[in-house]
Task: structure prediction
Amino acid sequence: MSLWVDKHRPNSLQKLDYHKEQASHLKKLVNGGDFPHLLVYGPSGAGKKTRIMCLLRELYGSGVEKLRIEQNTFTTPSNKKLEISTISSNYHIEVNPSDVGNNDRVVIQELIKTVAQVNQLESASQKDFKVVILTEVDRLSKDAQHALRRTMEKYMATCRLILCCNSTSKVIPAIRSRCLGVRVAAPTIDEIAQILQNTCKKESLNLPVDLARKIAEKSNRNLRRALLMSEACRVQQYPFSPDQEVTEPDWELYLKETAGLIIQQQSPKRLLEVRARIYELLTHCIPPDVIIRGLLQELITNCDGQLKCEVVEAAAYYEHRLQLGQKAIYHLEAFIAKFMAIYKRFFEEGIADLF
Amino acid sequence: MIFLCRMDIRNFFGPTASSKKTEKTKLENGSKVKTEEKKKEDKKKHKNEQKETKKGKKIKEKEIDSSEVISIDDDSDTDLNSNKRNVKTKESKLKKSPAVNGKDKSPSSTKKKKKHSVSDDDMEDEEVVSTKKKTKGKKTQRIVDSDSEDEPSSKKTPKGKSKLKAKREIEDSDDESKPRQNTLDSFVKSPSPNKKPKQELKKTPGSEKKKEVSVSDFFGSGSVKRTERSTVATKRKLDDIDVTDDVEIHDDDDFQDTLKQLDEQQSKKAKIDTSPEKSIKKSSETHEEESKSQVSEKPSLASKLSAKVSKQLLEDTPVKDNVNKLETFVPDTPVVKSPKKSSPQKFTKTPEKSSPRKSTPKKTSPSASKMEVTPKSTPKHESSKTSPGKTHTSPETPALERKASYRSYLQREGPRALGSKEIPEGADNCLEGLTFVITGVLESLERDEAKHLIEKYGGKVTTSLSKKTSYLVAGRDCGESKLQKARSFGTKQLDEDGLLNLIKTLPGKKSKYQIQAEESFKKEQKEALAKKKSVEIPSETDRTSNKLSQFERKPSTPSSSKSHVTNKTDQSEESLLWVDKYKPTTMKQIIGQQGDKSNAKKLLSWIQNWHKNQAAGIKPQGKFFGKDDGAGFKAALLSGPPGIGKTTTATIVCKEAGFSFVELNASSTRSKKSLKEVVAESLNNTTMVDFVVGSTAKTNGHKHCMIMDEVDGMAGNEDRGGLQELVQLIKSTKIPIVCMCNDRNHPKMRTLSNYCYDLRFQRPRVEQIKGAVMSIAYKEGLNIPAPAVNEIILAANQDIRQVIHNLSLWTASEKSMTYEQAKKDSSNAKKDFKLGPFDACRKVFIGGEETAGMTINDKSDLFFNDYMLAPLFVQENYIHVVPFSARGDVKKHLSQLARSADSIAEGDLVAKKIGSNQAWSLLPTQAIYASVLPGEYMRGSLPQMVAFPSWLGKNSSTGKTDRILQELRTHMRLQISGDKKSLNMDYLPYMRRSLTDPLVHRENEGVPEVIKIMDDYDIIKEDFDNIMEVTKYPNSKDVFGSLSSKTKAAFTRAYNKEVHMTPYATGVASKKKKGKGAAVDEEEIYMEGEGGGEGAPAGDSEDDEEDNVELDTMIKVS
Result:
């Protein structure tokens, strides 16, 4: 009894619900014989992985769905042992090299070499290449990306790479140019609402359109989250009512409360409290860019006009810093302190203007 | 007054000599004075005035106070009486004037009294030098007359008798004075026995008198003479007033030491000279020079006085005619000197005073005396001072020193020269032995400055008054209680000017430490010489001593072999560090280890009784049972901070105990193996020294021991297993083992210390080190004031080795060092002391004096204290700071916070660059951003303790969560499509709900459903718990926790009953994951690059292990 997200995942290109044109392109690509390296990118919850799996099924048939988890051990030049788990079928191997942090270069070099150096035994019935899926490529170190560049060309004969990432901005151009970019955009609200309704129909449920749209909007166009939300709604209350409360994850509520605290009072003491809450979020592995965005969205609703610009500018400034720096709390705190200073000043000036 | 005088005199004479003798000496002095009067050019003027006015003054005094009148009468009637009194008073106030000056002194004392009682201004001026000098001249003249007058006074008191005798003597002295001039050299070389005793007697009684004359005595005598002097004083300049005050102050305690020395010198001189003639000669010579200078300075005065002087000279002695004016002054001066000398004797209560000694005149160095002379500016003072010094001093070099010291002593008393300007520089150590209490607000000095000033000149500043307090420096708004206390104790009160004047006028002294050093050095030399003569043929012992002598020794022990000296000159001096050169060679020389209960003594007795105790089979006792003699312990552990003599103690104790020793220190490899091979064998060895050395060596064959130095340095691969082996060795050793370490409480030492006799070394006190350092300085010919040495010692934190090294370094270019220099260098040295991260962080933010003077470099140095931790500390604590700049304005405060936070964030960027590009040259940039700027923005008060950075802990738990997520994702990977992030943010909140809701709503019936979900997603029970933990927020309700225990138990039982197939390995395999921290973080928080694939399946023991691992990695991160 898996969750709906996993239970109703489409498993072939034909069954995909949106970006159908792209799906047909991919199918042609497979059938055309010459299969390039792919760079699949798009926001979280847009269906990248699903699409990749559909593609593999198109390539190799249902054999790719027999998955197994393997442990691989690599040794760094400094004699350090690295272990990384991979998911593989007979035809492909999926790995997330960033799991090993800064030593991802070793993983990439060794793993791809071992995979690529073995030819497929039966070239008649199968493609003569295997596929290596690298996820979260945007979090690969520069070293690893450079290592990847050469490997991609050298083992072109026996293996294809499918790189999967959220954003291409952190993928070096050398790799981008060697791949066929496939952008999987997030589904629109309408598409999500439609999918939700279809899913409910499969579950023999009746989901009101309004609720479907409401969930879709709440999900930030993240289909995975939308599906999970709708299932949560189902658990919470059935039959659905259009004005039903859509439960949000705890961390999101927590973040919103934090933003509320900031608006409520601007003082050093409050800053300390907020810091503690931010730490709480960070220790739960909520990405800091999510935090800063969430904060901004809440804070901005209490601002107007000139102040809004100022706050957004500050948020952008510190979000950029966030990406450049290494200790997220510094930048989050700097943003909050900045906001407090701006807000307090604006507020007092506003009062002064009144009199 | 008379009674007082009588008492004093009796007392003085009692112990030493007859009163008659003293009187005689006085008389002689008087005669000298007569002859010497010519010298004082300035004085002459005053003298003339005084002569004219003396009688008148006396009359005035009588009118004022009855007691004064009496004394005045005595003075006028008999020079002798006046002399005696004068001497007493002089001693107290002025070192300058001897018996002859007595008249002068008496006026001075009277002046003082006047100051106290009547009007200070006029009196003060007159009091000091000028009046005395003038009176001296008068006295000499009067003496002849006085005889007749004295009779009544003599009848009244024993003093009168003495006076009579004195008169006779005076006549003699006059006669003598003539011959003196004729053959000065002859006298010096071969003093007549008759004269010698007289002088000695004179001096000694004088000294006694002075001793007895406490403050009260001084006052008493002073009052009588005042009136006269006051009149004289009025004529003189105002400057004198200050001088007089100073003089009084000096009398109390300050000069006791110097006085003693002077006494000793005097006695020596007396013996040597035997006759005043010699002294006169010397004085005349010196006086000539001085007088010349004086003349040049103030020719007008000289010319004026010259007439008077010449008259006096004619009357008194023919010698004067021969000599120039300067020469004439000279004779006066010697007279003055003798009383002065006597005065110091009076002050000192020690028996030394009574008996003449040959001790070297160490107290006043010639340089100091010169210094003093210059500041005093008045030629009169100089002449008077110098002259006495010369008379006293023997022709030898030490005599010169004495003279100098005497001069300086005189200077303090002397009135200011006309038109001369005061010089703020005081003589070295001029305040030594004085204790000050500062109260209220001084006019131009801050309290710190005043304190520094006093300490610079050797004075001591305390916070509360006691009987020992010499002066109360009272400023504006001073504490009433202190004033009252001062009154009750009779403590003298000064204002700021008084203090400055004190410094200006007090003569310099050698610090007692320096004196000690010199004495010991001289003794050594003498002994060495004696030895040299005695020992012509070098014996074996000599050879050995020569070897030993290379390490030269400390001042405290006078015993040093001649070889010592010779070696110094020969070889060791150039090549050895001072630390080695002055290394102690006997136990007595070890600083801070002389006591009976000292560690060195304990160690010595322990090592001497070692074999006995072992043979007796005594078991080691605890420290708190029985006597702490370490009997039964097979080894000793000396512990203490570096540089306080642990190693030295051990080696010397071994030598003293007659043990030969093998020393192993950090320079040797001390692994288990080498210890076993090298040391273990040697423990049963006997020494060959016995056979080689032969008869002289008395060491038994088995008397050797092992010294294991720096045992806490036995670490690392080189010395692996060394400590354990050492413990084994100690258990089985047949010889004593002495171990040494710095930190006894270090965990590494724990085992060892159980088997060792525990001897803990403390840092020696500053005074203990000071003596040694001063002696080294003396031997090296350095000129360093004692206060400077103090600073150096404190700066080195009482590390003797450091002190000596610093001294050597700082005096490498120049042989002398001022207090300021020392202070500056010391503060530089202090900088090297390590600041803890908490203190450093506090210093970053704290405002006020502590950080006011810090430069930007100082501030960034705070960062470099620990450049890894410092930014974390700053970030943790900057919010707590209440910035001064905000002044309570929240808006301003917030904007400062924002600026600080911005700067800190900027610093983080730099840190990232440094980390990723190894751009360590950016570190100073980071220092500015991460520490200096926030500190500047926020500078203010820190109302709470500096908090330890929470980032470290948070980062650690972030890592843990990340690892859990990684594991979960690995487990669920076959079913879900998302990565770790989406798993965390999207799946888990709903997963949590779907896993708990069935249990909450349906309790036991929901269990199968939950287990089904878990199986579908391939998660095990641990994952279930992890999910609960990861998704728990402070605002979320703890659903699972609220379940009934029955349901939980049912769930656990049901889960364990079935076998759950997972696509991943569980259990054993997980252990392999050790050492891999999951380091995938979106912000790339982790710099260590130690992330490991978390693909391994979860095992039961995984969490604990990974926690540890995580902690380790975190440490590296920070």
Remarks:
- Chain B touches chain A through 91 residues (CB under 8 Å).
- Chain B has five domains: 2-413, 435-505, 599-760, 837-946, 953-1117.
- The first helix of chain B runs from residue 2 to 13.
